[in-house]
Amino acid sequence: MDKKQEKFNKGEIIIYQPKTGGPRFEVELNEETVWLNQKQMSFLFAKDVRTINEHIKNIFKEGELSEKSVIRKSRITAADGKEYVTNFYNLDVIISVGYRVKSKQGTEFRIWASKVLKDHLIKGYTLNQKRLKETNLIDLEQAVEMVKHALETKKLKGAEVKGLLEVITKYAQSWVLLQKYDEEKLSLPAKLTKPKYQFDYEEAIVDISKLKSDLLNKKQAADLFGTEREKALAGIIGNIYQTFGNKELYPSIEAKAAHLLYFIIKDHPFIDGNKRIGSFLFIVFLSKNNYLLDKKGERKFNDNALVALALLIAASDPKQKEILIKLVINFLTS
Predict the structure, then answer these.
(1) Fewest beta carbons less than 10 Å away: which of 182, 236, 284, 330?
(2) What predicted TM-score, i.e. pTM, was given to this entire model?
(3) Which alpha helices (DSSP H) does the chain contain, by range?
(4) pLDDT digits (tens, 9 = 90+) for 32-57
């Protein structure tokens, strides 16, 4: 077993049970996505394994997804006690199969998987729902304010106390944002930042080429990674600078960055690597506008949060675009 497969086998196991009844089975959560094998997908979509296999073959044949980037091998123990190496497919494949079979069970699973990934924006693992219900958000926010007041009046001192405050505050802010996201009550911050740097298409292509070279050297990408579909990226970059009545539709760094991330992930300008490239250019854009780091010199988005957010966008319904844009902007300004 190679190191990559061994690492995958250490992924977290989550139990999935459809609300409308149906099969209850274990789901792998690893590398910031969920994984199912063909047998599990046949249960999920109420289709036989041969049908699932045929859909997956067509997905790869038509170039909708790159086989190398969405499959992981894992050893499973069968009923006969023997171990077998089995292909597991990530959420991108599951969603693609779900659209092809037009299954209500598939839609329900996509919503559930999106919720699991969203929870990773708050913590590095799925939130324990019982603990979440037992915790009172108002009490947590009051505790934060009490600690802040104690620090301001110098009743508390020391780096450890400040560090504790930072963790609690970030957790509370993330929770508030995600709660508002759930309730579709997010609003845009009153104060946003005017960009200093204008994103350039040719420069972006050079940056992507360097990213591809690095990933190929690490054997983390296929040859089709970063292959553009008829200058679709140029259109996306043009979109974030579009105007109406001589006024920019997205005048701030936050709005441009959020739309850049969303458009690349959802519009699929590349044959392969849209989520990684979208996340990469999102970081590049923020960095070149001197907006990547906060006042303490720390990144406003850590890697886990960005990956989870990219997957959340990929799995989202297009009708959720505006609320997702607001979520990204709020994370950048919180």
Answers:
(1) 182
(2) 0.54
(3) 3-9, 38-45, 49-61, 67-70, 91-101, 104-119, 129-134, 137-152, 159-182, 201-217, 232-240, 253-267, 274-288, 303-315, 321-333
(4) 678 889 998 888 888 899 999 999 99
